[in-house]
Amino acid sequence: MKNSLISETRDDCRFCTISNKISRRPFDHVISESKNYFAIASLGGFVNGWTLICTKDHRLNLREDYRSPEFKDFTQRVADTVGKVFGKSVFFEHGANLAGSATGCGTEHAHLHVVPYSHDFVEDTQRFDLTKSWSKSLLNVDEGEEYLLMANDLTSLFAQPTWHAVNFAESQFFRRALAHHTAQVQCYDYRASPGEANAQATAEILSSQMALTVEVQG
Ligand SMILES: [Zn+2]
Ligand SMILES: [Zn+2]
Known about the structure:
Elements: H1 14-19, E1 32-33, E2 37-41, E3 51-55, H2 69-86, E4 89-95, E5 111-116, H3 121-128, E6 135-136, E7 147-151, H4 154-159, E8 162-165, H5 173-181, H6 196-217
Antiparallel strand pairs: 1-2, 2-3, 3-5, 4-5, 4-7, 6-8, 7-8
Helix pairs in contact: 2-6, 3-5
């Protein structure tokens, strides 16, 4: 099964409509983009500054992207800006590998979560669910396998992330963990708590901040 490398966009995918600039909804505003990636505010982001880095192509996970210098540079730029405005961020991915898989978080389009969080997210999350076994190394799963991946900082994200090969698919795992850590258990389901106004505010602040950075560099 080679689902993770479908290289095209799809009309029925929300992230593809954003990537193709078809969506006009204010919370779908693209904060910044590179050749193959773009950043948006997370819908259902119950932490201020919660941002997603998405691939422009429609594919299911970022398994191959962790080796891409462009992905690393773009993630660094976005995380720097989120950090400046909202505080230090942590990173996680629901590595789905099958259309319709429960491992994802409601969208089947590859994305990395960038979330301001001042504690040890990796440790808090491991403690949240003691039934899971985690590895701390470069992601090493077979092509058809699903995974959960997290890191407290950018260096470990690209060199030594903490990941779990999924044997029992469950929806929105990291969202549930984060809702638990931040005592907002009622918010974990983004369908029930979309928080459009919050997402729009995050998008506006970050895009103006990133535009400023580009101007200064230019
Ligand atoms: Zn898509
Ligand atoms: Zn997700």
